[in-house]
Design goal:
The chain is built from five helices and no strands. The chain has one domain. The two termini are 25 Å apart. Helix content is 85%, strand content 0%. By secondary structure, it is an all-alpha fold.
């Protein structure tokens, strides 16, 4: 079971790296005025998002394996799962934003993306506190 836990942590960490970096690319993309740079950022965003998807699936899959194996219950686990659902929704919303950039239909400023980029950091803090401290 320790191997499953280790793999879960590895994939969660890797997925978060993508969740932190993709919106930073969006920040830069929202400030771009020339087509060459925009095309380069579109390519980078697409490749990163495609790379992140199996990381997200693996993180969630190994997390479910752990949860079902240990049979952990409690309010802290329900809260953690709610935050995981929020992260999954955030991941797919990033895909929607990526598609907006791809079609040159971005509706947000670089400042909006700077704030949007902070959400996974906040969620990570809550999840770590819930898992380690188990406050309820």
């Amino acid at each position: 079971m320790l191997w499953i836990k280790a793999l879960h942590i590895i994939f969660v960490t890797s997925w978060f790296a993508g969740l932190f970096y993709l919106p930073r690319l969006f920040v830069n993309h929202a400030m771009v005025t020339d087509n060459a740079t925009s095309d380069r950022l579109k390519l980078m965003e697409r490749k990163l998002y495609r790379f992140m998807f199996p990381l997200a699936l693996s993180a969630v899959g190994f997390g479910l394996w752990l949860w079902l194996s240990y049979g952990v219950t409690g309010h802290w686990m329900h809260a953690k799962l709610s935050f995981v659902a929020l992260l999954v929704a955030y991941h797919f919303y990033c895909g929607k934003l990526l598609n907006d950039f791809k079609q040159d239909k971005n509706q947000h400023s670089h400042i909006w993306y700077r704030w949007f980029n902070e959400l996974p950091v906040i969620v990570l803090c809550f999840i770590v506190i819930l898992v380690v401290v188990k406050p309820f």
